[in-house]
Amino acid sequence: MSAPVRGLTRRLRERRADLVHLTARRAAAAPLVLLAVTLGAFVLAAASPLNPLAAHFGSGYERTTEADRSAAAAALGTDLSWWQAWGSWVAGLAAGDAGFSHAYRQPVLDVLTQRLPWTILLSATALALALAVTLLAGAAAARRPHGALDRALTAMAVTLSAVPPFVLAMGSVAVFAVALGWLPVTGAAPPGQDPTVATVARHLVLPAVALAAGQVPWMMLALRRAVLDAEASAPVAEARARGLDERTVLTGHIAAVSWTPLIALLGARLPELIAGSLVVESVFAWPGLAAATVDAALEADFALLAAVTLGASATVLAGTWLADCLLLLADPRVRIDA
After folding, report:
1. Beta-carbon contacts of residue 161 (< 8 Å; ≥ 6 apart)
2. pLDDT, position 81
3. Pairwise CA distance, residues 16 & 20, whole Å
């Protein structure tokens, strides 16, 4: 068994009670949080000026009779009060039925099943890319603190942090798709063709880079600060004074204490990653949940909106739980009370 595996196994044994306690508390609170989120979604839907029947009938709404509207309202469930609609939706969800999407004319679960994998693919690729760039920048800061490369990367991160995600997305389209013509702009495959691994990979480049560019600055600056603090710490100075080689100092002393701020930041900024993913998907017409969310909002498809809101909230809860678990494993000094 390698040293890292032995270390992880030992840390798991040491923090087992904390991990179990954290997981139990989060699992107990999660259903209440999710119910409250869905309740808020239905309250806001009831206060919305959008008319689901007008969206359902489209341009023919004015020509429909009261009988037609009443029948459609009963079929869509819009004749119920918000609390009745919420109770009916929760009861159906508990039975495995998330409702029917009148915007897509199919069950909500089918819409999510078709589109969720595309959103996961984009978000995971962008996050992996952002982490890779962040780690390289952290290594540059550790090897030559305040050097030319470190200063250049810091300046780039500060500049990017001031640019909204939609501007990054539109700028990448203007440069790499329109001006240079290197990469496609929209979708996951050329029009009229079924997606393949090659076409998806090529169409994924621009949205993944645009989404990653919005996350890199905060991650890079947090890791750089942690690396510089570790560089100036007494344990690192003592390790170098004992004659340890630079690789051992970097991996055993600096990297070991620099992970904590990055892990905490990833958990805290997960909602922004989800929001940024929806923005980027909209710009690049990526076949994920963004288009479904926009269509559901425009057509007052409250069942689909509630399901998307529930899924996003569950993702945030799971992500923050995982980040806190990793914090417990990465730093024995960390104590999490919630």
Report:
1. 217, 218, 221
2. 73
3. 6
- Is 169 domain-assigned? yes
Identify whether 218 is part of a domain: yes
**Is 58 part of a structural domain of the chain?**
no
Contacts of residue 108, defined as CB under 8 A and 6 or more positions apart, other chains included, come to: 98, 99, 100, 101, 303, 304, 307
CA distances in angstroms from 193 to 277, 284, 289, 312, listed in the order given: 24, 17, 21, 30
Compute φ and ψ for 331, nearest 5 degrees. -135, 115
> What's the whole-number mean pLDDT along residues 206-214?
87
Q: Which structural domain, as residue segments, surrounds residue 249?
A: 112-298
Domain count, the chain: 1
CATH number, residue 212: 1.10.3720.10
In this structure, how many other beta carbons lie within 10 angstroms of the beta carbon of residue 14? 13
- Residue 77: band (very low, low, confident or very high) from pLDDT cuts 50, 70, 90: low
What's the confidence (pLDDT) of residue 222? 80
What DSSP designation does 337 have? -
pTM (global) more than 0.85: no
CB 286 within 8 A of CB 115: no
